[in-house]
UniProtKB/TrEMBL annotation:
PANTHER family: F-BOX DOMAIN CONTAINING PROTEIN-LIKE-RELATED. Pfam families: Beta-prop_KIB1-4. Residues 104-338 form the KIB1-4 beta-propeller domain. It comes from Rhynchospora pubera. The lineage of its organism: Eukaryota, Viridiplantae, Streptophyta, Embryophyta, Tracheophyta. InterPro entries: F-box-like_dom_sf, KIB1-4_b-propeller. SUPFAM superfamilies: F-box domain. This is F-box protein (DUF295).
Length: 392
């Protein structure tokens, strides 16, 4: 992605004659000389842009050399890991063609950008987290973190995949300014495997059969959290290699009504736990939603999420607002392809009813392509594909 600099010099424009006898001159207000902006304001403006959306800083730096010299360099690893493009996601239609520019969407504002990813030649996208892509180089098995907006790549240790189409979920601890090397956690459902490493390490640390961290890892307040199929939530402290503890230990699963799957998702600055049951609960709910109170170590039942909608898939989860995206149904949960018999369904939290929204959602069974993508795609199609995608 490139942004052209503009010439701030003012010009006077003379209008063309309206008749052969009459001419008129129109003076255009001179363009603002942005170089004359007080220098002490530039870092303050840059800080405000960073607190909202780091991508705005790229446009800010493109105005002139003075602004660029007085604002943080987004191409440095320290900047990338301290200010990741958290609310940006890469949309995929399932065709996995990285030779053409890809669409990136800000799920908070609705802003979208088309970005060329030709730098990824010879790579596959293994996972994504907080706007960053986790790549694997196909020949060397080198794992890399890639910022699609600045094209910064940071190397991680090699990881040889056991199966060609393994499904990985990723989470990353971001720097607070004192540590520029974040830890990256990868969890693989097929292998019941959890790996973690940081830039500069020579190998991945791993734990096999560690079911407590199999689903949807998130990094929250200095710890990684993930959920088990039974509905339990586990945490891992960054100061220890893999010290785990059970969140809300007093809760016991109801083995008479098995939890088929559980998910963690961030929604409006809170962490939600979603439990999908095999059969409806006494309340009639097939899905129960809880807020995780980390301060008091307890679960709080949630009956409504207002205008928000949750998108849940095997490796990723999203929360979007129907106010920002009118085509999304609020107070609902969009479920990926491996949750119910229907390929894709929408679950209404008020009526506790499931409604199929796609009859032919699965285009690949991880071994071969089953059918071509059916266009045009709706926004829910893109979001549920993002949450359910294997590899690009």
């Amino acid at each position: 992605m490139s942004i052209r600099e503009t010439d701030p010099r003012a010009r006077c424009v003379r209008a063309r004659p309206t008749t052969s006898q009459e001419t008129s001159t129109v003076t255009v207000m001179p363009a603002v000389d942005w170089n004359a902006l007080p220098l002490d304001l530039i870092p303050r403006i840059a800080d405000l842009l960073l607190s909202d959306d780091p991508i705005d800083l790229l446009c800010f730096r493109a105005v002139c050399r003075v602004w660029r010299s007085l604002s943080p360099d987004p191409r440095s690893p320290a900047f990338c890991f301290r200010f990741p493009p958290r609310r940006w996601i890469m949309l995929s239609d399932g065709d996995a063609d990285l030779t053409v520019p890809q669409t990136f969407l800000n799920i908070s504002t609705g802003r979208s950008l088309r970005i060329s990813l030709l730098d990824l030649y010879g790579h596959s996208i293994l996972a994504s987290t907080d706007g960053l892509l986790v790549l694997i180089q196909e020949e060397t098995f080198l794992i890399r973190i890639f910022n699609p907006f600045t094209h910064l790549m940071v190397d991680l240790p090699r990881l040889r995949l056991k199966y060609k189409r393994e499904r990985y979920a990723a989470a990353m601890s971001f720097s607070d300014g004192t540590d520029n090397n974040p830890k990256v956690v990868l969890s693989c459902e097929q292998r019941r495997l959890v790996l973690w490493a940081k830039p500069g390490d020579h190998k991945w640390e791993k734990k096999v059969g560690y079911e407590g961290f199999r689903y949807n890892p998130l990094f929250i307040e200095g710890k990684f959290y993930a959920t088990h199929r039974s509905g339990r939530v586990w945490s891992m402290s960054l100061c220890c290699d893999l010290l785990s503890e059970l969140v809300c230990p007093d809760w016991q699963p109801d083995w008479n009504n098995e939890v088929r799957r559980s998910y963690l998702v961030e929604c409006d600055s809170t962490v939600l736990l979603v439990r999908k049951y095999a059969v409806s609960r006494p309340s009639g709910a097939l899905i129960e939603l809880y807020k995780i109170d980390l301060d008091n170590n307890r679960l709080v039942l949630v009956e409504s999420i207002g205008d928000h909608a949750l998108f849940l898939g095997p490796t990723r989860t999203l929360s979007v607002s129907s106010k920002d995206f009118p085509s999304i149904r609020g107070n609902s949960i969009y479920l990926g392809t491996d949750l119910l018999n229907d390929p894709v369904v929408i679950y209404d939290l008020k009526s506790h009813q499931c409604e199929p929204i796609s009859g032919q959602a699965v285009i690949h069974n991880t071994v071969r392509r089953l059918r071509q993508s059916v266009r045009p795609f709706t926004l829910p199609d893109h979001l549920i594909t993002y949450c359910s995608h294997l590899q690009w």
